[in-house]
Amino acid sequence: MPGLLIYNSLTRKKELFTPINPSEVKMYTCGPTVYHFTSIGNFRTYTSADILLRVLEYNGFKVKYIMNLTDVGHLTGDNLGDADTGEDRLEKAAKEERKTAWDIASIYTESFLTDFKKLNLTKPFEFVKATDHIQEQIDLIKKLEEKNLIYKTSDGIYFDTVKFEKNTGKKYGELSTLDQIKEGARVEPNPEKKNPRDFALWKFSPKNVKRDMEWESPWGIGFPGWHIECSAMSMKYLGETIDIHTGGEDLRSTHHPNEIAQSEGATGKQFVNYWMHGSFLKVDGKRMGKSLGNAYTIKDIDDKGFSPLDLRYFYLGGKYNEQLNFTWEGLNSAKIALEKIKNQLEIIKSNKDRNVISNEKLEKLDKYRNDFISSLNDDLNTPKALATLWEVIKSNIPSQDKYDLILDFDEVLGLDLSKQAETKEIPENIEKLIDERNKLRNEKRFEESDNIRDKIIKLGFEVKDPAKNE
After folding, report:
1. Is the dihedral of CA 122, 75, 191, 221 positive or negative?
2. How much is the pTM?
3. Measured at the alpha carbon of residue 214, what is the angle toward residues 212 and 217, in degrees to the nearest 5?
């Protein structure tokens, strides 16, 4: 089986994946901030992480997979170019919805987990919440304090990026084009920061204001900064150096460079060996945003009569690290394609040919399997893997082998085809067309019956007439 090639965002090239410990791959994904319904843009990132997990397992690796849920500390200034300014997203949502921040976290975490299941995403070893790991975050900041890498301002405790570079000999921000991004920030720089690149590790609660979420710390009452949670929780569950860290490309600019700096500043060890970033999902050729009214959710998908698995198939049609344009027409095409696969699988399942497979067909079987995994091992090329799936469906290999191979592929694609094959029934509209065609054939109106047969085939069903001697 060919080795797995991964595009490493840190080195900016494809690399052969070599785990730290071959017996267990350690993988971390940055999950959602649970202040609102999770968008289909975010779910594209989590689906890409799921495909990576499945590909690793398909290659024979055992994977320990962690995903965080940010329920405190992510400030609104992140959208304006400085993640250390603005309001806590959960506190802001709590005011708007007249609930507590704890209520907001609970409501939208439950919503996320429900949608996560609908997309047939693999449950991680743990979903880890920032608020469940406050002490771990405080302990990590203490380590940074011991290394003289922090300083205090009127609003919090900050990480000193200049001292990090001086003490470790490493360059801060190699993962991103941070300086260029900072120049375009739409907020005034904090004059108390020693360097514009420095970032908050702990934020103090505003004076005379009681927050829903705040904790005692050695530096004062407050709450953790956004970045520190991922380092603290990753280290707790996966160790000081992990194999793979994934997330959306928006996190490549500040969040992930900050994770690297604080982690390596504390341990002196490389934090992550392979960084993988998913590209944005556009909508009708435009950027997605709540203010634009196009940050669609799984509920929007359901309300339009689509299945979340239709959306999953749509995601698979694009490379994870290339921009994908969402349209309702495109989702409908994905729905039709997935329905055809289900219909063909039902036909294949019903065919009972268990003929001895010929050497020629055995070679085809091996070729399809090799083509499929080779595509996925080439930096998760899911469009090419889907093309192989369709080749198998159209092939002349025996039905039993075809059926087994398709379900084997679905262990990675995650379209839940085995469940669909168990429950699949011929739709009512197809039954009506079959009845109409049979009536026309009995009346010897063969040209009209052939037209209906063509319609049935276009809808993904195979038409088989009885032999003349039956």
Report:
1. negative
2. 0.86
3. 170
